[in-house]
Amino acid sequence: MHCRLLIVLAGLAAGLAGSADAAYMPEPEVPVQETQFQGRNIVAETELHCMTLGIYFEGGSTFESEIGQRHIARVIAERAKANRRIWGGPTICGVVFHKAKGVCQFSFACLPLARRKPPRRGKWWEFSKSIARDELEGRNPEPDPLIRYYMQAELTPLRNVCQFRKEFVPVVKAGRHEFFREPGTWERRELARREFNECTRYAQSLKPKKAKGKKAAAKKSKKHFAKSHGKKKLAKLARLKR
Questions:
Q1: What total of structural domains would you count in the chain?
Q2: Model's pTM, two decimal places?
Q3: Are 91 and 162 members of one domain?
Q4: Same domain, 137 and 200
Q5: Tens of pLDDT along 110-167?
Q6: Burial 211-225 (b: 16+ CB within 10 A, else e)
Q7: Residue 167 shares a structural domain with residue 112
Q8: Residue 196 structural domain
Q9: Same domain flag for 46 and 139
Q10: DSSP for 172-212?
Q11: Using one digit for the tens of pLDDT, what is the confidence trace for 17-51?
């Protein structure tokens, strides 16, 4: 009897399994909808856009030469490679838009949004974009890989020009910009000892301000002295009248 019961149960199990297989219907595959971003490297496109912004507003919009713009591109790329917090970290966008204590690393980034909006079309924008692409894809071999700083001396305050001369080693002048690298230990000592024309001019420009400040301080001190002694004299006269 036990054998007969086992045979019946086995038959029921087989029947249930068969009915389950028959009832199973695979779910239809949902077609993947194509999006405007499919097949695109959004990170690479964003970095290209940020690099183009930096080159265009730092040089392209002011008609800087090709060689000058290529060197600007190298400075941006090398700062990102250095991955320093003071420069904005390891990304191109982080470097281009880095801001610390209210000061933008690249001055255009602090302009009102309307003034740093790139043109939709324009040969200078497209030219800067082509230079940015060359830099990011390794086709910009001419600029020195050590450059990290640049300035356009004619448009830079004397104080800042003096600081550049004292702190950085000049590498090359490309277009209207001068490009610099960081000094070694002995170079830093040498730069500190050297006299630069811009530093001399800056020091001379401070002399009239210092003289004016001293004159104003002396006048203020004299006025305070007279006022103080005048009060003392009035107090003395008041005591005598009593």
A1: 2
A2: 0.71
A3: no
A4: no
A5: 999 888 887 777 899 999 999 999 999 999 998 999 999 999 999 899 999 999 999 9
A6: eeeeeeeeeeeeeee
A7: no
A8: 144-223
A9: yes
A10: EEETTEEEEE---HHHHHHHHH---HHHHHHHHHHHHHHHH
A11: 444 444 555 566 656 566 666 778 999 999 999 99
